[in-house]
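RETRY 2/3 - previous attempt timed out on the joint model. Re-submitting the same 660-residue input unchanged.
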Amino acid sequence: MIEINELHKSYQTGANSLHVLKGINFSVKEGEMVSIMGSSGSGKSTFLNILGMLDEADEGTYFLDGKPIRNLNEKVAAKYRNQFLGFIFQSFNLINYKTALDNVALPLYYQGVKRAERTEKAMHYLEKVGLSQWATHLPNQLSGGQKQRVAIARALASDPKVLLADEPTGALDTKTSYEVMELIQKINDEGKTILLVTHEDDIAHMTKRIVNLKDGLIIDDSIVTQVRADEAQRKAAAHV
Amino acid sequence: MFKKDRWIEIIEVFNANPFRTFLTAFGVFWGIFILVVLLALTTGLRNGVSKDFGDFATNSMFMWGQGTSKPYKGLPKGRRVQFKLEDAAVLKDKLPQLKFVSPKGQLGGYNGANNVTRNEKTGAFTVSGDYPEYIEQQPMDITAGRFINYSDINEKRKGVVIGDGVVSSLFDVGEDPIGDYIKINGVNFMVIGTFLSPSSSGGNAEEEANTIYVPFTTFNQVFNRGDNVGWFAITAHDGTSITELKPRILEIMREQRTIDPTDERAIGNFDRSEAFGRVTGLFDILKFVGFFVGGLILASGMVGIINILLISVKERTNEIGVRRALGASPWNIRGQIIQESLTLTIISGMTGIAAGAGVIWLMNYALSQSGPVDNFANPSVNIFVVVIALIILIISGISAGLIPAVRATQMKPVDALKTE
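RETRY 2/3 succeeded.
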């Protein structure tokens, strides 16, 4: 699904050049659930942004579902983002003057789907994340966990090949984090490829594979046994 | 670009911050409103003054004899210049550019002694001997009967056309003056027509209303004028300026009346076109000031809209980043912002024009209720000007949207997303 070879990225800050990614080789197969870990400054967010076509690499090759991602103009990039990728952000990034339903429907709007069909599809995904009765609420009327679930529904709405999550639980408490992770695991169970960036160990262990980044290089890439979020939650509750 | 979904998006954006939307719209509204009202006021002033200027044909001059200031061909200075009827024919013959050369005779005058009687009623009126062409130079509404015609001139008929002021002083209410007789200096004349002066205000109108027109030939015979002419009212054809013809006219007249060609004071004249030109020149300046000030106010409105759009797009940088992450193409974003600003400018501009038109309507209504006001009449705005203002609005609306829209889509989505 994702094929990356010798990926380099550096930032110009004044006279200095900051080499953030120093040659990453990485691949993901369909249906995988991968977490990218690393301390701050390790380049994990930059890496995810490049995967998401929100940023461009300086060097190296990147194939997404067999298509080369290189020097795309914004129009094509926008189309690819819409078709292939779903984004989940730490700060949710919902549009605050749109209802939950309209937020979920937004990628479909950019796909050119008709209004009636859009609403129907968006409603389906809201149901999937258990928020159908909140459809007409604005983001500021929802809790953090609910907001993130709306964002997940939005990421799913265009039926993308890959889901990219940048610290999806970073702004949530442990209980809510586990609930969100439970949802993401369920989505992966249905076959969706998921990549998530996190610096929390427990969250990383809820995926099936952990990639460790340090100073712009992959230092460790290993398959782990997935901890189911609902079990972790039960355990935590029993502990209290 | 004009799909229903896009409109729903735009209405949502406007509703997201209604106060800001209102403020943005208000700048443009105010600019175009002031522009329209200012132009209407200058037009009203111009109309009012033009109206007071009377309806006399603009491309005209008046000419009368005075005393000579230089001796010539054995004739002494201080001699009174007397125009003759034949001068009219000579002028028309030598200067075919002249449309009308109307010889005029006058008896009595404004606020003069009583000179007209009917039964036991008397009045002081201006009695004017005229040719039928005069009505072309001085338009008047014939309310009953007719104006002087050439049969009157040729047969020297004793018929008169009287103004509404004359009618109301000499006749009772409801009495029909047509066919009745009035006595001018003891001579009986039959009323053949009545007229209403079209000027509605000022001393001119009162004087016109109190005028009696007599056929020129009758006038000269009855009042013993021989073939003397009191003064000439001369109008040039459209396309030739009376001001340019004036030196030629005076030259011919000096030759006709044996006056030294350099004697500037022997013939008095009033160039209506020149006087009118001075006044219209003043109003052209006033109109320019109106455009200039109104345009500047409109420009400041536009700066306001650009400013607010820049801020609002900057505030929405994050949102634009999210939209791009979800698959919005740059033109999708740009198109939306431009359409937003265009919608806002056009709606507020139209509202401004409508409000300006409302104020013009109110002014006209007040004028029609209170009656005519000096130096102000019929304020209005040229539709062409309004269309130009609207085009300016649309162009600036597009550029007001384009600047922030291009900025918003030039940065990488990741940078837009980082902006809070």
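The first strand of chain A starts at residue 2 and ends at 13. Closing ticket.
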